[in-house]
Design goal:
alpha/beta; Rossmann fold; two-stranded antiparallel sheet
Length: about 700
């Protein structure tokens, strides 16, 4: 066994602490991606095990049973059925919650029927005393035919025992807990004779689920003379579930004792307050207000340091690297472009910090429950709340989360309106514009006006989503009502390790994902801004010197005029001038127009593009920060600042409503299997953004 890599699958119901166990086993040795060919998140990591062994761990999507009702659950079943899959586990580690053993053990008994070595992890053992729970572990191990690790991922106990059990997985019993074929012996005997080389419970899953395994295709089973109708199969599935719960009840009668008199539970009291029909919304609103106040207040110092650092680095590169195009590319293109995204790391990190804390504490599920009452009035499913709330991080996984909505119309409406929700990519645009046009002063002595503005933009995005859903619901009529079922996990103090890993991983994903796009676009923008056709660009220096020969400009001012003239007559300047008539009514000049066009790749590119444009042609001395350059920009026609209250609010509204994200369009196409819906999104959201910005600018100018 020494030096061997053991393949491990972590399986369990949602809210059993599966991710916490995964984090304890792997630490930061994690990778997050998608399963090949499908948009289901895949978390993989490595763990050091006793005896110099290594564990390759896959954290499978949460599932309540092997009776799949979503694509996420199909992933679990298909992996467990296909022994030829490269990720097929040597051992399945099934995570359960000590307070919900009865429900969790249904999935465990099904996995045991697949004859895969399985370890039962009973998590949150630190809550046993407070809940009055005692367990007879030897009895449970004997009757469930497995080994049990009693774990508290919060207290970090039981993890070493779990690692020892994983290493000795070959000694685990693969005997099923109960004989599922007894639900209809005659039918299962026929199946056994028709396919003697196949595991009987696998055959049953393939028949009842939309999955395949090995060389046996579902079509072969459907052609067999034993095919049953769907109602008959559903009846047998129900009979199987009842039989499993009877077995589980019998085991837990002896193996688990709950003394409610000893339980000390605050959950019911907290729920009465946090899900109250009035106070619940007030508390949620107050928490949102605290989050957005903190995002501005706590991140301002590190942001200013980063901004000044990149301005210094750009100037240093200009002054100390050999003169030439490569130095200009580095100093005026690459460094400002990267600085345009790195500056927002503190705010992105704080946003994910708060979201992680709300999820870890169990409060986010209460928010979902609260908001369901509002969602139903606008034609959305209660399950739509999850994509809309998770859309505050990124619309792409949020749209994927809509797969759990069974009704296709409600799922489609959710997919179409989710991009209105303010995602983290909008945050850089919002924060730079708010800091430019909204005064940094207190309201009522306690609320920061900039933080209030940011919160209003988030509420505006959410409002846009539910109003759009209401309109779409009137157009796309739904004949069937759906019902919202949500599990309320117990309240718990967020685990520092889980929160930290989530913040680090999400921030890295944002920076790397946005950084690649911004770096590429910054280089393109620099090239287009540093080169141009015709005599005007080539002879910019002579033309400007001739124009100002009778005025007493300093050397620095003359260089700035030359750089400005060159930029205006460069390729990017010509493009900007071309679209300026369309965007001028919104209060934008040609430079902002270029930033808007380039940000269709990703919203956050807007700031990086402006940073690159304003750095092109700079002399390298007394380098200004991004914010200072944007604040100092003046419209040569009106003589007013480009970024004033009217144009700033107009831009904020434009980015609140515009699609501005090619990746989101691509995922909508994939999820709807049609270009019709993403194109409808792009056109309709762009029109809404244009009209809202136009009205705002014309009223405020």
């Amino acid at each position: 066994m020494a030096g061997r890599t053991i393949k491990i699958s972590l399986i369990g119901n949602p809210n059993t602490g599966k991710t916490s166990v995964f984090n304890q086993l792997t630490g930061l040795n994690q990778q997050v991606g998608n399963y090949p060919g499908i948009t289901v998140e895949r978390k993989q990591g490595t763990a050091k095990l006793p005896g110099n062994c290594k564990g390759s761990i896959i954290d499978l999507p949460g599932t309540y049973s092997l009776n799949a009702s979503s694509m996420d659950e199909n992933v679990v079943i298909e992996l467990l059925l296909n022994r030829n899959d490269k990720d097929f586990p040597d051992v399945a580690v099934v995570i359960t919650d000590v307070e919900n053993l009865k429900r969790n053990l249904l999935l465990f008994t099904q996995i045991k029927d697949l004859e895969i070595p399985a370890i039962l992890v009973i998590n949150m053992s630190d809550r046993m005393e407070r809940k009055g729970i005692t367990l007879d572990i030897p009895y449970l191990e004997e009757h469930l035919k497995t080994k049990i690790a009693l774990v508290s991922s919060r207290k970090k106990t039981g993890i070493d025992k779990l690692k020892e059990l994983i290493v000795s997985y070959e000694s685990l019993s693969t005997e099923p807990c109960l004989n599922a074929s007894s639900i209809d012996p005659e039918y299962f005997n026929k199946l056994r004779h028709a396919f003697p080389n196949q595991l009987l419970y696998k055959l049953w899953l393939v028949i009842t689920q939309d999955v395949n395994f090995g060389k046996l295709e579902k079509s072969e089973l459907e052609k067999s003379p034993f095919t049953k109708t769907n109602p008959e199969l559903k009846r047998l599935q129900q009979k199987e579930t009842i039989k499993r719960y009877q077995f589980i009840n019998d085991v837990l009668k002896q193996g688990q004792k709950i003394d409610t008199a000893k339980a000390k539970d605050l959950r019911a009291k907290l729920d009465r307050v946090l899900t109250h029909k009035i106070f619940g919304y007030v508390i949620f609103f107050a928490i949102l207000l605290l989050i957005f106040q903190s995002i501005f207040a706590w991140s301002s110092v590190p942001m200013d340091l980063i901004d000044e650092g990149f301005a210094w680095l750009s100037a240093y590169a200009s002054e100390n690297l050999p003169p030439g195009k490569l130095t200009e590319l580095i100093a005026q293109g690459i460094i400002p472009g990267i600085g345009g995204v790195v500056i927002f790391i503190p705010q992105i990190a704080f946003l994910f910090l708060f979201i992680s804390i709300l999820e870890e504490s169990g409060y986010m599920s209460r928010v979902v429950f609260l908001m369901d009452k509002i969602m139903k009035r606008f034609g959305l499913s209660g399950k739509s709340v999850v994509p809309l709330i998770s859309g505050t991080a990124c619309a792409i996984p949020a749209i994927m989360a809509a797969r759990n909505i069974e009704n296709w119309r409600e799922r489609l409406i959710t997919i179409l309106v989710t991009p209105f929700t303010t995602c983290s990519a909008r945050l850089p645009v919002y924060t730079i514009l708010i800091s430019l046009v909204i005064p940094n002063r207190l309201v009522l002595g306690i609320f920061n006006l900039q933080g209030l503005t940011l919160m209003l933009l988030y509420l505006l995005g959410f409002g846009g989503a539910i109003i759009s859903a209401w309109i779409l619901n009137k157009i796309l009529k739904t004949r069937f009502k759906s019902f919202f079922v949500a599990e309320m996990p117990n309240y718990k103090l967020p685990m520092v390790k889980n929160v930290a890993i989530n913040v680090v991983e999400k921030t890295k994903a944002f920076v790397y994902g946005a950084g690649k796009i911004i770096l590429a676009i910054s280089m393109i923008i620099w090239f287009l801004g540093s080169h141009g056709p015709g005599e005007q660009f080539a002879n910019a220096e002579e033309i400007v010197k001739e124009k100002y020969k009778s005025t007493s400009l300093s050397e620095g001012e003359l260089e700035d005029e030359i750089a400005s003239y060159q930029l205006e007559n460069s390729y990017i300047g010509i493009m900007g001038k071309g679209i300026e008539p369309v965007i001028r009514p919104l209060g934008y000049d040609w430079k902002i127009g270029i930033a808007i066009v380039s940000s269709f790749a990703a919203r956050e590119v807007f700031v990086g593009t402006l940073a690159t444009i304003y750095n092109i042609g700079s002399s390298g001395e007394n380098e200004a920060t991004i914010k200072q350059r944007m604040s100092a920009e003046v419209n040569p026609v009106t003589g007013k600042k480009v970024f004033n209250l009217a144009s700033g609010i107009s831009l904020l509204l434009f980015y609140a409503f515009a699609m501005q994200c090619m990746s989101t369009l691509a995922i909508v196409k994939k999820e709807t299997n049609s270009w019709k819906w993403p194109m409808l999104q792009l056109v309709s959201m762009s029109i809404i953004a244009y009209i809202a910005s136009l009205i705002a600018y014309q009223l405020l100018k």
